[in-house]
Hints:
The chain is mainly β. Helix content is 10%, strand content 14%.
Amino acid sequence: MPVEVECVGWGVGHKGFNDDALVSTEVGKYKPNAWGLHNMHGSVWQWTRSAYRRYLYRDDDGRNQPGVSDRRVVRDGSWYDRPSRCRSGFRLSYPAWQKVYNVGFRIVCDLREQQTLGAHVAK
């Protein structure tokens, strides 16, 4: 089954998956996904907070604790990867200290938390 992907830059000879970029592209170049987020898949792998654990996922197994020194999960694929890796369900892991040329990060803020903090500050 063919997969349509708009936010990738593979130069594998298949024009449907080639945006002619040699590496990552600027944010906002492609249409946002259903949640309004740009460049989620195929630009660079993204570090996550989670330590790499086998599935099934359990939030209480310690994987999301800040002090855990295990390997960290990266998701979403990069401009260097095959299209099958360009999705949030595919993950790899690296030691947290390792520098990786095609891995970046995304800053995420919970809007509800910001609103709550703003209300407390205003008092």
